[in-house]
Amino acid sequence: MYPPAPHAALLAAVEAGFRSLPERYVGAEAAFDATWRIVLGDVGHTWEVRCTAHAARVRRGATSRTPDVVIGTDATTWIALRCGELSGIEAFSRRLLYARGNLDLAIAFEGLFRLEDGRRPLLRIHDVHLPGRRVSTLTMGDGPDVLLLHGLGGAKSSFFDAAATLSRRYRVHALDLPGFGASSKPTTAPYTARWFAETVLAAMDELDIERAHVVGNSMGGRIAIEVGLRNPERVASLGLLCPAVAFVKRTYHPIVRLMRPELGLLPHRLAREKVAGHFWNLFADSDGIDPSMADVVVDEFQRIYASAGGRIAFLSAARNIYLEAPYGRNGFYGRLSQLEPPALFVWGSHDRVIPPAFGRHVGRWLPSAEQVVLDGCGHVPQVEQAERTSDLLVFARADDARGPLPVSGTRKAA
User: Same domain for 159 and 290?
Assistant: First the structure.
């Protein structure tokens, strides 16, 4: 007899891993019901996994059931995921797998099963329940706590690359802010910086986080600043990536004031090409962005915006950002001068949304902050220049016991 071919041995290992999934299932919340179709192209086989609150069922091949998620990868990567040698976030960041459908469920799959040796999963996506709202959270890694807050219209998926890097040394929590991603979308919420900051602080309480480094992009950066202003003792440091600071020239102020968020109650959709165009406009060099990532992000935005709650959250948050007063009583920049936690501002040289010129206002009112301009970068540095951005988050590397590194001034990243 001939020895089994490598392909046959690999397929046997994959089969064994799938068969063991039901006994390693950790369960889910009541009423949970999701189906994954997993395609391993190199061995030419497909598996379907359906999970409910208390059980997981696995079958080889595909049924007529429409899956919530399709995951495609190769057998070697899949085995590495099941053995805990690689997390799903790392595999996604390294483009070793693709996902179509509900991206949250794609990443959540890993956290639903103990590893083959009985260890807990490398990551988990779970809900933090707060009064009147629910916050979907990705948690991974061990060490000092780091919070990651996404921008307007985004979700925690925009921080997957950063989470993969930082989780090697820290316990990372990437949040879907209420109204976005997989979190609840209350139609009566104010969606102001204060309300979001209160939500973040309440989530920290539920997650048993006394103090954390807080990193935010765009709207998330504005919320991070608000957390630092209201409860500085809870913030070890701030990493602010193209934060949505107050607009000094608000040319369209009267028009925006008349645009009521309640219009989101009226059913409507944004054309896919319009959403895709806005996505590509966020970057300085679109050639450096994986087109498959664009498909995932656009699909996710359209799915969320299809709900009345998602539309109201987007319109209300956008309106509040634009209308925030820069000066005067309770104006943004006067309050910014009172910010106590050390802050790093990262701007993109080609950011069309929040241009780096805003750094002049920050420098005037908060001269102690460090400011960095990333050459050839747009509005989402943690995606477009993930490695350089992670390297700049010196505060996230600072040990809580020693405190953040003292920095000041403005410079360009090397």
Answer: yes
